[in-house]
């Protein structure tokens, strides 16, 4: 009856082993005695292999360790929290409370290649904000200790101060494995958008060039956080009012959707029955090949390098789409009708305009009855724009630095306005609120508590505004160790002890585990 036995792996895949297996499949001759022969692999690659002594790239202390952390499997799992969820039985949205490094590893199996868009707003490394638990590189064990799931002395919060010896290195070591794992989740036409400011913008771009490929750089979008400089003049007499969104694609198949074209720039001064139109050039700025066209009304001749072929130009003249000047020294133009355009949108520019950060804060305060419970939330309109430009109506969006859950709020609003069915996965570390904070006084013990409450309020507001289409719930999960007992015996164990251990594996390792958790 072996066909009825199904194995549930006790951990996520070991990415080093998977990579070795893929290399062995592609080039079996590089395998020697069960191991990859690196020298042989270099010989096969020949001119395509880089010199190891001199190469271009981003290097920092801790990079190799960060790569190993990304490849290290995890035994963690997700425990359902129906009591902290909204519309558990019907929603497809997910909120996960836990260290995003471990969660990204868990998501590899079921979401590999299925995420259309990843948006993250990571710590900007200003030297003041919370980064992640000390020794986060230790993975699940450290996370469980820090959240006091396996020990009484929880880890303290840490900041990455400029007084630390490896200010940029610490931040890069934190980001590298997370972005490495995130790339695997993107669909072939997927995209990642990362908010950042000048503190780490240059390092982040180099890091993304390495992980996603320089050829997959899409854009560095710029948005203003306020209209103009106000208040006390800064020391160097320059005020920073902008931030960036770095955009990288999984492959060359991605493109933004573009802004919907409107008739605002069109008119119909001659009452042309074909509808509104506007003037556009027909002269080429690239081609050097010229030919002559003739104005059929005046006989004036125009010899130019045109943007269209001779046949196309003659057809446009016959259709009355060419506007001739009164003199041959002038330049003909074309009547471009609105109806001539396809449904493809107008390209966006890298300058997105202004999305008021102060307004984002005040809007969030109104949601929480005047209490300022979040610092520096991203504007909902900014994230709505990014999601609308990067996804289709049924896509999945992931944010593993969820913070105040602005992405979930944006998806709720966009789904209602467009009658679409986008779903989100949000991941947030259960970062404790400080004892003296307004959030703690309001009864919120962690940032994830605030995030979930924000999602509930946002869903209620959208429904209250009459925009009722969409999924306004979320399933909440928490990161925990495996619910099953682990194999913890030596290979030379005596028979009676082996039998006893096998009996102990019959049940869950956690007596409190419910059926949903084991599933």
Can you give a write-up of this model?
- The protein is of the alpha/beta class.
- The chain has helices spanning 15-26, 38-45, 63-71, 100-111, 140-146, 167-185, 201-212, 310-318, 357-367, 380-390, 406-418, 438-441, 447-464, 495-504, 515-518; strands spanning 31-32, 35-36, 77-80, 94-97, 115-120, 186-196, 217-224, 242-249, 277-281, 291-294, 301-304, 322-323, 333-337, 351-354, 396-399, 423-428, 475-480.
- The strands form 4 sheets. It has a 10-stranded mixed β-sheet with strand order 3-17-4-16-15-5-6-8-7-14, with helices on both faces. A 3-stranded antiparallel β-sheet has the order 9-13-12. Strands 1-2 form a two-stranded antiparallel sheet.
- Strand 15 (396-399), helix 11 and strand 16 form a beta-alpha-beta unit.
- The protein is globular, with a radius of gyration of 29 Å.
- The two termini are 22 Å apart.
- Residues 1-8 have low confidence and may be disordered.
List the helices and strands and how they pair.
Layout: H1 15-26, E1 31-32, E2 35-36, H2 38-45, H3 63-71, E3 77-80, E4 94-97, H4 100-111, E5 115-120, H5 140-146, H6 167-185, E6 186-196, H7 201-212, E7 217-224, E8 242-249, E9 277-281, E10 291-294, E11 301-304, H8 310-318, E12 322-323, E13 333-337, E14 351-354, H9 357-367, H10 380-390, E15 396-399, H11 406-418, E16 423-428, H12 438-441, H13 447-464, E17 475-480, H14 495-504, H15 515-518
Parallel strand pairs: 4-16, 4-17, 5-6, 5-15, 7-14, 15-16
Antiparallel strand pairs: 1-2, 3-17, 6-8, 7-8, 9-13, 10-11, 12-13
Helix pairs in contact: 3-6, 4-6, 6-7, 10-11, 11-13
């Amino acid at each position: 009856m072996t066909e009825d036995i199904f194995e549930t792996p006790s951990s996520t895949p070991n990415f080093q082993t998977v990579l070795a297996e893929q290399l062995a499949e592609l080039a079996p001759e590089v395998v020697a005695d069960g191991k990859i022969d690196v020298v042989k692999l270099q010989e096969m690659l020949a001119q395509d292999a880089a010199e190891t002594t001199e190469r271009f790239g981003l290097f920092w202390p801790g990079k190799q360790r960060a790569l190993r952390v990304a490849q290290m499997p995890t035994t963690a799992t997700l425990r359902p929290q129906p009591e902290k969820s909204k519309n558990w039985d019907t929603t497809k949205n997910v909120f996960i409370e836990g260290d995003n490094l471990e969660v990204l590893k868990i998501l590899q199996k079921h979401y590999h290649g299925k995420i259309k868009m990843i948006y993250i707003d990571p710590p900007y490394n200003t030297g003041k904000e919370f980064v992640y638990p000390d020794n986060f590189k230790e993975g699940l064990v450290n996370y469980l200790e820090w959240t006091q799931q396996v020990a009484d002395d929880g880890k303290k919060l840490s900041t990455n101060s400029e007084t630390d010896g490896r200010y940029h290195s610490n931040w890069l070591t934190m980001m590298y494995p997370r972005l490495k794992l995130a790339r695997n989740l993107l669909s072939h036409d997927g995209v990642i958008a990362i908010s950042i400011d000048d503190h780490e913008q240059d390092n982040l771009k180099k890091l993304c060039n390495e992980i996603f490929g320089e050829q997959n750089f899409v854009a560095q979008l710029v948005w203003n956080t306020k209209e103009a400089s106000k208040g006390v003049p800064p020391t160097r007499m320059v005020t920073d009012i902008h931030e960036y969104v770095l955009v990288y694609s999984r492959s060359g198949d991605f493109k933004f959707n573009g802004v919907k074209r409107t008739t605002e720039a069109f008119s119909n001064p001659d009452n042309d029955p074909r509808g509104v139109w506007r003037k556009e050039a027909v002269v080429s700025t690239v081609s050097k090949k010229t030919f002559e066209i003739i104005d059929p009304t005046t006989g004036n001749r125009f010899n130019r390098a045109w943007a269209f072929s001779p046949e196309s130009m003659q057809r446009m003249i016959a259709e009355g789409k060419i506007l001739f000047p009164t003199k041959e020294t002038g330049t003909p133009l074309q009547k471009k009708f609105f109806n001539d355009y396809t449904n493809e949108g107008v390209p966006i520019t890298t300058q997105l305009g202004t999305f008021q950060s102060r307004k984002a804060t005040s809007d969030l305060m109104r949601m929480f009855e005047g209490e300022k419970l979040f610092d520096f939330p991203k504007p909902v309109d900014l994230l709505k724009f990014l999601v609308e430009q990067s996804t289709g109506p049924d896509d999945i969006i992931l944010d593993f630095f969820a913070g105040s859950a602005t992405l979930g709020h944006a998806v709720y609003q966009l789904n209602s306005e467009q009658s679409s069915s986008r779903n989100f996965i949000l991941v947030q570390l259960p970062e404790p609120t400080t004892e003296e904070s307004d959030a703690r006084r309001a009864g919120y013990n962690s940032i994830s508590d605030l995030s979930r409450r924000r999602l509930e309020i946002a869903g209620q507001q959208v429904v209250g505004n009459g925009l009722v289409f969409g999924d306004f719930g979320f399933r909440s999960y928490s990161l925990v160790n495996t619910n099953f007992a682990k194999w913890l015996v030596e290979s030379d164990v005596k028979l009676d002890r082996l039998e006893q251990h096998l009996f102990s594996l019959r049940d869950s390792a956690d007596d409190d585990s419910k059926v949903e958790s084991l599933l």
